[in-house]
Amino acid sequence: MKFTVADLLDHLSLDSPVETGVLAKILKLSNTSEKQDLELAIDSLLKLGIIEKASEDGLLRSSNESLLDARLRCSSKGFCFAIRDDGGDDIYIRDHQLNHAWNGDRVMVRITREGGRRRSPEGGVQCILERSTRSLLAQVERQDEQMLAAPLDDRMLTTIMLPEQASAHLSGDPPENVVEVSIDRYPVAQHPAEGHVVRP
After folding, report:
1. What's the pTM value of the predicted model, to 2 decimals?
2. Cis ω on the peptide bond leading into residue 175 (within 30° of 0)?
3. Does the pLDDT of residue 68 top 80, yes or no?
4. How far, in Å, are 35, 117, 178 from residue 32 at the CA level?
């Protein structure tokens, strides 16, 4: 996509509706494919309650106070916290509530349980606003006839599917199986992340 969800939301306000056509011009979307991406993003954000329709074609950012902007920070032990932009308490995100968000991503979080005396509030990622990782260092592995990249950064709680050509990095003396991987597709629904090797 030519734009991120964060770009789209930056151009919407709480009180002045913006038409879809105007939004497409602001985001410099010229061809049909890019405009379809915008329609898809708008439909998804409407369903999540992150934006709302003010008029027939006018869009507003929702004033839902239970949705907070944050940046995701994960530890190598699998604990993830959303660091709030407004400086409030960090929000603990359980692994099944990450919704494919990765360490460093800007996300929108909904609080599901308020914090107690010694407990952080808990929440779930509702929407990924902006991805922070475009490429990463990883080790090439073969698992069940599938080539995978396992990130060297153990805060990245994911693997990335690679094309079969990546098997070339498993041979040699010594094998050059540590590579830089560029992300071609982020994980969505049941589909895993995909990428390709840029260089050993």
Report:
1. 0.82
2. no
3. yes
4. 5, 52, 39
